[in-house]
Amino acid sequence: MLTQSVVARAAIPLTLDDVFASPSLFGTPPSAPKWAPDSRSFAFTWNDKGLPDRGLWLSSADGKQLRQIPLPDTSTSLRDFVWRGDGQSLLVLQGGELWQIATSDGSAEHLGILGDGVSTLTMAPDGRQLAFLKGGDLWIFDLEKKTLRPLSDLGIPPLSNLTIGRYNRAEREIGPGIWGGPTYAWSPDSKRIAVHLVDRQSMRKVPFPDYLAAETTPNEIRRGYPGDANESRQVGIIDLSDGRLERLPLEKPDARQVIGFSWSGKGVLLLDIASDTAEDRWLYRVDEQNELILVWHSNRPSRIYTAFASAWHSDNERIVFLSDLDNRYGLYQINAFTPEEFPKRISNANTDVLSAPHVTTSGEIFYTANLPSPAERHVLRIGANGGPPEQLTRLPGYNSAHPSPDGAQLAFIHSEASLPPEIYTLTAPGQVSHRVTHSPSERFEKQDWARSRYVSFPSHIDDYTLHARILEPPNLEPGKKYPVLFGPMYSNTVRNRWSGRYSRIQQLLVQKGYIVVQVDMRGSTGYGRDFREEFLVDFAGDDIEDIVSAVDYLKSQPHMDIERMGIWGSSYGGTLSIYTLLKKPGLFRAGVAAAAAVDPHFFGTDDVAIVRRPDTHPEVFLNTAARYAENLEDHLLIIHGMQDQVVPFKTTAALADLLIKKGKDFDFAFAPGATHSWSREAHYSRYLFGKMLTHFDRYLLPEAAASK
Description:
Elements: E1 2-3, H1 16-20, E2 34-35, E3 41-46, E4 55-60, E5 66-69, E6 78-83, E7 89-94, E8 97-102, E9 108-113, E10 119-123, E11 129-134, E12 137-142, E13 147-150, E14 172-174, E15 184-186, E16 192-199, E17 205-207, E18 220-222, E19 232-239, E20 245-247, E21 256-263, E22 269-275, E23 280-286, E24 292-299, E25 309-312, E26 318-323, E27 330-335, E28 344-345, E29 358-359, E30 365-369, E31 378-383, E32 386-391, E33 398-403, E34 410-416, E35 419-426, E36 434-435, H2 442-446, E37 451-458, E38 465-472, E39 482-486, H3 501-512, E40 515-520, H4 529-533, H5 542-554, E41 560-570, H6 572-583, E42 590-594, H7 608-611, E43 635-641, H8 649-661, E44 667-671, H9 682-700
Parallel strand pairs: 39-40, 39-41, 41-42, 42-43, 43-44
Antiparallel strand pairs: 1-37, 2-3, 3-4, 4-5, 6-7, 7-8, 8-9, 10-11, 11-12, 12-13, 14-16, 15-16, 16-19, 17-18, 19-20, 21-22, 22-23, 23-24, 25-26, 26-27, 27-28, 29-30, 30-31, 31-32, 33-34, 34-35, 35-36, 37-38, 38-40
């Protein structure tokens, strides 16, 4: 399969400055559409000039009428918005100010001051009250009386004064878990709210020193390691009549996560629970006495990850949920009141469902699945009366579904390997989709972007067929050998999609003269359950052998200079990069390992879904990078942010010290204030990607061919 979205000749070659320029050459991607309750229009945030400040935009349901809604206060940024129940106006949060804006003429009314730190606005079903989170508590704004009141009093601020880092969260709050989860949900009668209660006060305190303060401070946060008790996650129900909070009797809240919860149209609460190890999954309904009634339970010791989701069907009887009961992820349904022994699969058995189900008021079910290959993702629909799923989107690439409440229209976000995300609409199956947004600049349209090839080859250690994506110049010079870069390494990378800043860097690398390769190693979805679960308790193991298999394949391909190959990645991609250099010396000439997890003892409590715990699988925790440090012979650059709370900087510092003691030559680039998400932090990203490019150019470009 060969895709090339843009074929016009490049006017000006890309530079690293272009990747980070503002306005952006690549545009500002639109946010997910939010539909009006009447399904006649949808709104989203966007900047059509490629600037970071977002405005509010309104589109007709068919996407053919698009206009920007003027904001009342141009001195503060747009933070959130929700529709009013009549579909004629929007509630807009700018800074700490709440405004109501009419969609007809843009007239604005100031409603009140909500203050700083507001998030997660939702409208009550009766349209009279607005709820939001602030300071770890749930608040209510009465839209008729224009009064504000807290509905809970349990929020405790975080230990750290810094506002950065994944684990820098409130000591106690109504909100998501560290790695996600629900926040709160209105009952259909607007009289109760289900809330997600998270308490981290029993987790260990871990210092992440702040070297940028006036004096070095410990900067303690709550962070667990494998084997520790996790944050406590519970579900409660708040009665709005008296403010009383009742906690539901969930077992082992420090070892089980709340995947989600939702109310049926008749006011029955559904709970979706999974163990942190991912081995167990439970669906409960809550009766009138707030007791839990088990609907379904699944256990599989080999399960990894928690790609789960659930929703009520519009008939208020059935539950539609995403699970991995068969070889492929699928959508299943089960009656919540008279459950069958085994749920019924309603999606195709030969594809993986890769999104939560969207159930419309008319009973239609929208979802995305990887077809016709794992590289693509398309939107499908199951009719209100059941039957086989129907594919709706046809544009090759990645498509995510945002159906209207009545299911009559579909807005979707589409991207390809050479096209950043854009909003499209589709009003009927078989019709040509309509593009709503045009984000990139004119110069983007003139570029000659890399072409993508998708290839397969055998594993050299077993019977699996492996898959890779190759990005190369659109016009390869006959007889020329190009240096090859593997990366960014990670699972699920052989995809026809735009991956933000990583895609920008890949395009720059190809224009600089590299061929870029990515491999779907074991652990990736799209190839069956066995291949996905091969990754369990085997990090930096057989997945590295999949990289070796890819190198073996490239030896048979023209234009590949296998004597000048590099590998790079961040997070687990950094882990793969550094372990590959250490376990397979000489396979690559150079590597860049960013934010690499090199010691499983310092993994997070969420990683038990991959490595389990030291008391149950002690052998896994012997697999440290230090164990192979003596093997380093290739050119290694280590990148790490000193405020990385996911992969502590301490672990990289310890490995670097060991390499120095062993007399190894390597390079080290760090950023004092960068977090685990360094590639999303513009100034750190520009600096560290610059170091990476310099490293590879030094050792892999033609003039470096003789210096190994």
